[in-house]
Design goal:
Helix content of chain B: over 70%
Largest interface: A-B, 48 and 31 residues
Oligomer: heterodimer
Order of helices and strands of chain A: HHHEEHHHHHHHHHHHHHHHHH
Strand content of chain A: under 5%
Structural class of chain A: mainly alpha
Number of helices of chain B: 2
Radius of gyration of chain B: 19 Å
Number of strands of chain A: 2
Largest sheet of chain B: none
Distance between the termini of chain B: 64 Å
Shape of chain B: rod-shaped
Number of helices of chain A: 20
Strand order of the largest sheet of chain A: 1-2
Number of strands of chain B: 0
């Protein structure tokens, strides 16, 4: 009979806490529909790897290494950056750069909204060594694959906490951003209307854009070539017009497949002994700081520009410059409608949001250039 | 974990240079995109 209960005796309170954390992530995914594609696999995986003597992760048994499936997946797909980069092909294929190409000036807000990354870098360096601080700061990219690639390249010890923070905060963007935006803007500013003037964007422009972006960012920050290159490759597949079936596959099948593996594999880094540390709480706090200052950076930059512009812009669109696509763009649009039911900001905010995707990858490349 | 408050000040350099670089790169991309639109929309 002992065989039935001997493993039960090995349960630790730390593992029980991790079950609760896993349960919370699953609850948020299902009941609150917060990034369910990632939080659900992460939550379930967190429970799997925190069972005593779990066979899902590699364990030493009687001095012999027993390979666990999740550890193998981690080695095969995350430690070599393969999963996040392949996911970028899918994301690139999903993005329509049309609104951005119609009004390229909006791209400057994508740059301004990366302020949180660099502010958090300074703040995190107070507590962590510079490579860990830079890896934590990139949570502010609001972009899971970028966070993973940067943390891996910089050899951060806190990969699990960084991945969980990056994906959790992306899910919490609808909760984090509105109060910051309201705090930094007046009702009058939030009611500023921005008429959308659609312009024709030629197909050749849409085809050349991803190639040129890859060339520019690759020449300036070569370490980010794989990030921006995979993203833009996905977009080129979408826009070239002759690879529709590949584009569809990248957007749906490929992205879904990688997301399943990515989520559950991330959980392999959530074993209680690695995850339940005071540093994890600090990383979660610093990740929140990064998101807050990203949002503030975009809004304040727009307010500064308004001092010089004849035709004012709604400063809320600056907040869409974080790369949490498309949530951030939608939030700004909804906030505009709430203040004035005739104020349609969607095309502008989505344009800024897409530029945030590019800018966050460039920020990741710069961080790598500084510290690799 | 050591707490080193001066590290914040020491790393402000990266904040300044990082933001400047990203604004310049995005500025270049804006310029190229405007040029691309202009070239392709010429009649």
């Amino acid at each position: 009979m002992e065989i039935l209960y001997e493993n039960l005796l090995d349960i630790t309170w730390q593992q029980l806490v991790m079950w609760l954390i896993g349960g919370l992530l699953i609850y948020l995914a299902i009941a609150k529909e917060m990034e369910p594609t990632l939080l659900l696999p992460i939550g379930f995986g967190a429970i799997m790897v925190n069972l005593p003597n779990s066979g899902a992760v590699s364990q030493m048994v009687d001095g012999v290494l027993q390979e666990g499936a999740l550890s193998t997946l981690f080695e095969a797909g995350i430690s070599n950056e393969l999963f996040p980069l392949i996911l970028f092909i899918g994301i690139g294929a999903m993005i329509d750069f049309g609104p951005l190409l119609t009004n390229p000036k909006l791209m400057i807000f994508g740059a301004a909204a990366q302020f949180g990354i660099f502010f958090t870098l300074c703040l995190a360096s107070v507590f962590f060594d510079i490579n860990d601080a830079a890896s934590i700061a990139i949570i502010g990219a609001a972009d899971g694959p970028t966070s993973i690639v940067v943390a891996l390249k910089l050899g951060s010890k806190y990969l699990g906490a960084i991945m969980v923070a990056a994906y959790s905060y992306m899910a919490l963007v609808p909760i984090i951003q509105p109060p910051i935006i309201k705090l930094l803007t007046t009702k009058h500013e939030r009611m500023i209307r921005m008429p959308y003037r659609p312009k024709e964007v030629k197909k050749v422009t849409k085809i050349l854009f991803p190639i040129i972006i890859t060339l520019i960012t690759g020449l300036i920050a070569p370490a980010s070539v794989s990030l921006i290159g995979f993203l833009m490759f996905g977009n080129l597949i979408r826009e070239c017009g002759v690879l529709n079936s590949l584009s569809e596959t990248a957007q749906k099948v490929l992205a879904n497949l990688i997301t399943i593996f990515l989520g559950i594999t991330i959980a392999s880094q959530m074993q209680a002994e690695n995850f339940l540390q005071k540093e994890t709480l600090l990383i979660l706090g610093l990740g929140l700081v990064a998101f807050i200052f990203d949002t503030a950076g975009g809004v304040i930059f727009a307010k500064i520009l308004n001092l010089f512009l004849k035709e004012k812009i709604n400063p809320m669109i600056g907040a869409a410059g974080i790369s949490a696509f498309p949530m951030s763009g939608r939030i700004v649009h909804k906030m505009g409608l709430k203040e004035d039911p005739q104020n349609f900001l969607l095309m502008h905010s989505i344009g800024v949001n897409v530029s945030g995707q590019i800018a966050s990858v460039i920020a990741g490349g710069l961080i790598l250039k500084f510290f690799m | 974990m050591n707490i080193n408050p001066m590290a914040f000040v020491d790393n402000l350099y990266y904040m300044g240079v990082g933001m400047l670089c990203i604004l310049i790169v995005m500025g270049i991309i804006i310029g190229v995109t405007v040029f691309l639109n202009w070239i392709t929309n010429r009649k």
